[in-house]
Amino acid sequence: MNSKGKRIKKLSETRGDLKLKEVKIILRVLGYSLKRVKGSHHIFKNINGKVISLPVHNNKIKNSYLKYIIHPND
Question: What pLDDT, on the 0 to 100 scale, is given for residue 71?
Answer without folding.
Answer: 67
